[in-house]
């Protein structure tokens, strides 16, 4: 009966790696290497130019810096004065 419960509710079943993730890391590396070599021979492999890599890094680091400084699209709006006023009001009853 317990076996049927595990089949009905997959959250109770132990997690096991499947497919590529279950392979030995050396075997994964060998297969990946063959795939990369084949893509290069076929001419479909993408290689970043230094300019493309720089642009991608700037996008990534730009969004990270905006999150650190509190600016950017991730804020919910309102001026710093409004946030300060709301913060002081939340501590009035204490």
Automatic annotation (TrEMBL):
Top-rank lineage group of the source organism: Bacteria
Name of the protein in its database record: Stress-induced acidophilic repeat motif-containing protein
Disordered, as annotated region: 1-94
Compositionally biased region (Basic and acidic residues): 44-54
Pfam families (UniProt xref): KGG
Organism lineage: Bacteria, Pseudomonadati, Pseudomonadota, Betaproteobacteria, Burkholderiales
Record's compositionally biased regions (Polar residues): 1-10
